[in-house]
Write a structure and sequence with these properties.
The protein is of the alpha+beta class. It has 19 helices and 18 strands. The chain has three domains: about 280 residues, ABC transporter transmembrane region fold, CATH 1.20.1560.10; about 45 residues, no CATH class; about 230 residues, 3-Layer(aba) Sandwich (Rossmann fold). Helix content is about 60%, strand content about 15%.
Amino acid sequence: MSRRNENLGKSAIKGMKGMINGKETFRRILSYFKKYKIRLFIVAICIFVSAASSAVSSLFIKSLIDDYIEPLLLEAAPDFSGLAHMLCNIAIILAAGVIAAFLMNYLMVTVSQGILRDVRNEMFEHMQSLPIKYFDTNSHGDIMSHYTNDTDTLRQLISQALPQMFSSALTLICVTASMLYLSVWLTLFAIVFVVIMFRIVGMVAGKSGMYFKRQQESLGKVNGYVEEMINGQKVIKVFCHEEETKAGFDELNEELCGNMTSANRYANILMPIMGNMGYLLYVLIAVIGGALAIAGAPNLSLAGMGVLTLGTIAAFLQLSRNFIMPISQVSQQINSVVMAFAGAERIFRLLDEEPELDEGKVTLVSVEKTADGMLTESLHRTGSWAWKKPASVEGSAEATGYELVPLRGHVILTDVDFGYLPDKKVLQDMTLYAKPGQKVAFVGPTGAGKTTITNLINRFYDIQQGSITYDGIDVRDIRKADLRHSLGMVLQEVNLFTGTVMENIRYGNPDATDEECIAAAKLANADSFIRLLPQGYDTVLSGDGSGLSQGQRQLISIARAAVEDPPVMILDEATSSIDTRTESIVQRGMDRLMEGRTVFVIAHRLSTVRNANVIMVLEGGCIIERGTHEELIAAKGKYYRLYTGKAELD
């Protein structure tokens, strides 16, 4: 096979795939219309009435000229009553078309906005089911672009392009039937002319579509870059990185500009082409029709054989404009259709992302003790928890009932291997345990795997080898929502949500009372500064709590974890943003919070982990030392060097 034939073959295959994807995308878009069948049925009737009124009013021109205007020109005392009656009929038909068009547009607004609401709801609901990995590997700005730019392209398609194209199709059918009623020969000429026009439009539209698809991808990149730069504005200014940032934006913006320019270049030349070819058809029909009329050529129509009259030619000329107009309208909407398909493909790509799998059957339930000391499930929150584990008869895989396993917070990692990338391990042969009520601290350089361990306990990621058990139950058997409900987390990066301070604290436990939230704030030493805010606990936070200091935001985060009252706590650099004086006060509150709980602590400040039951020093994904503070100091190894300042913690 020659290189040329090979390239042609690849292009054909690519084109077929594009057609298949386009059909599938269109099918999925149409699936959202099912909910609005009645309104769409009324819209279809309105479109038919509007199209029919346009075609019928043009047919009236023939009768108006041949039966009323021409005879009146020859009468000495013309009677205009018949002409007035005919004009009234035309006015009524046109008025019906206008009313139908208004009702159609009104209904399509409600349909389009309803569909966009459904799409956004589906996207957001599906997004909540996606694993953390998706958000770690995709720009947040690009994800946001799905809700803004991509959804807006769908709005244009649903509210404008599709109704216009359907209306144009009906108009074309009605006009073609009317043209055949007037003259078959002139209709055939118009159809041949339009086929040639379609070939030209198709070539231009194909080029436009390719660039519109690239435009949406580039727009997502630009949004992602801008969002990232806004979040990092302080860092940019501190390191005087403005010029490099502008250069990076210019590169992405130039790519977007190039794609948008190419897309709109081809899209914008469609209308001049359609307009000029429409005028050309108008002139050619006038010339050909006039020549046939002068020559007295027989005129074949659906009404039978006859001759071309002045009224017939005038009506046909009007219909020829109506014949070109829907084609022009469709060509106008081609760029909207192509953009919408590009946006829809991105939306469906998000919706097709694999959700976070959860095959766990063990659930977390609130329990209370009976008089004989047995555990029983309670429908209200008691503060005591147990794992509701399916029980089965020995030798049978089928569950025959349930057993309640008290939640104690006993976590064991055995021979765990894990890597975010398959060929690059972050943890190797990791084995450790945390007994109920123990405080386990992880120290080590950045990238040693400290945070990764907590991510695996939470099942934000699943291990590749080994096992993690929680109270003797493999965490993969526990339903993720219940597993995470049993774990309280205070992260180094604090996320506060728009709402009052009280609502942000209650985020950890939606059923908590105001008194419980205030008690949690006092425990975290946040109560004093919260009461100094303009409305105290009712102060509304916005912009991720931008009006608060980093330390104050962290204190609210700690209070949020405290009100959840979980049996296991994970503190990932929880006090890193708090000054030393405040840290000592908060640490006492944290110690009270950690009493009776299993606690995993990640800290760079080694002074905060001195009272840990066991300290594990990680390096290169392995535990190189473990023991109490006194034991590790006595061993004079890595921890000793870190603690005494003879080695630095990255």
